[in-house]
Design a protein that fits this description.
Elements: H1 2-22, H2 30-41, H3 59-68, H4 70-75, H5 80-83, H6 87-99
């Protein structure tokens, strides 16, 4: 059990370092991100955690969260390594959330 916890923490630290360096806010595919965000919505459904809704934040807020708050993102998810999200998938999710943000041309305010 201790090894699993240790391995998860190591993977989270490595992922945080890798995504912070390799994250490109201009990259990503919003259409693929819509599918990738389904992994997030498995928990972020409003019962266990806050509901994930693209229209709950502006484009700038979503971008700041992904660009500057990577460490917070990983820290809030103790089992981050089990999600299996690649840097490309994070960029796709970011692009989807920005494209459907509150101040976008096509805001998504409901599921």
């Amino acid at each position: 059990m201790k090894f699993v916890k240790f391995a998860s923490i190591c993977a989270a630290v490595l992922l945080a370092a890798g995504t912070a360096q390799g994250f490109d806010p201009e990259a990503g595919d919003g259409n693929k991100g819509k599918d990738d965000v389904a992994k997030c919505k498995a928990c972020h459904d409003g019962t266990k955690t806050a509901k994930l809704n693209p229209g709950s934040k502006t484009k700038k807020q979503w971008s700041r969260f992904f660009e500057e708050d990577q460490k917070k993102l990983v820290a809030k998810h103790a089992d981050w390594a089990t999600f299996g999200l690649s840097n490309d998938q994070l960029q796709n999710i970011h692009r989807f959330l920005v494209e459907r943000a509150l101040d976008s041309d096509k805001p998504q305010t409901c599921d």
